Amino acid sequence: MIATRFTELVGCTVPIQQAGMGAVSPPELAAAVSEAGALGMLGTAHPGLTAASLSAQLDRLRALTDKSFGVNFIVAPQLLKHFDLRCIEIAARVARVVEFFYGEPDSTLVEMAHAGGALVTWQVGSSREAVAAADAGCDFIVLQGVEAGGHVRGTIGTLALLGEVIESVDVPVLAAGGIGAGRAMAAALAAGADGVRVGTRFVAAIEAAAHPEYVAALIAAQAEDTVYTEVFSRGFRDAPHRVLRSSVTAVEAFQGDAVGETTGLDEIRVPAKRLVAFGVDKTASGTIGAMSLFAGVSVGAVKRVQSAAKIVRELVEESSRECR
Q1: pTM score
Q2: Which of 7, 78, 177, 319 could link 145 by a cystine bridge, Cβ 3.0 to 4.6 Å?
């Protein structure tokens, strides 16, 4: 057990939060991470998200664990106008944590989640946003460095960002970006973080919903095989992301408007449009290699498919050895 302000606040036994990861993070993954003592997160960045489909996902999750878990929402301005705010209210009534990402911290959204009884966090990419999140009433903050996979808010390294922020806010702070091994976790905790957020490593968890070809590509990759880019920005402009370099090469060579199809939370098959960023899950079909294969620079730590519990255990054990 590694006790921090974060673990005491959310009711976990280890200071690890799983990243939201959209369609790749189904109830089964969130539940498995929470059962292992960390904070599992249900991803909602998925076609077909409605109040009804979210309620069904949460029912599945609550049937799998009675431990603390969270729900992640992407609230970029260009996406929020199509977002059903009832989803926040539904999540806040059953989740320990409601998390927001990719937008300026908004006290109205924070208050909405608090009203339902949840703790609230915001993932930010700068010291200015961190202070704004604390001022908006967030109970803890996730600092995302440029090393992170998926959509990236940060523009500098995780530890450098942590050094800027740690003395500026009074709430617990988690470090995100480039953390896939215990050594990186230990470094973040030693630098003053109250916990870490791990994404890429959990994409290869048994309980995750990542497409097998995506997982195989992660296992074969190293840090230098990722790229920070805006290539997959169709429908979500000015939103940098980190993916496998091979997916950029493949999509640039692809001819056609759609690289395949995927299934939404409403069970409806939808086109996987070329250059659109989304979580490439097991329902995807088509040219998988030309889809947005999100990966952080920690991808070298993804060596095999493992259970979520094994991943949590390895991170904690490796981190403890480094801290001795």
Answers
A1: 0.96
A2: 177
Q: Which two tokens stand for residue 197?
A: 């957020």
CATH topology of domain 5-207+306-323: TIM Barrel (3.20.20)
List, for residues 134-145, the tens digit of each pLDDT value. 999 999 999 999
Delimiting residues of CATH 3.20.20.70 domain(s) in the chain: 5-207+306-323
Angle value at C-alpha 155, between 215 and 143, nearest 5 degrees: 75
3-state secondary structure of 74: strand
HEC readout, 215-275: HHHHHHCCHHHEEEECCCCCCCCCCCEEEEHHHHHHHHHCCCCEEEEEECCCCCEEEEECC
Report yes or no: 17 and 195 within 8 Å, Cβ to Cβ: yes
Residues 6+ apart with CB under 8 A from 108: none
Percent of the chain past pLDDT 90, that is, above it, reads 92
Give the residue carrying structure tokens 């496998």. Answer: 244
Joined together, the tokens standing for residue 307 give: 């259970």
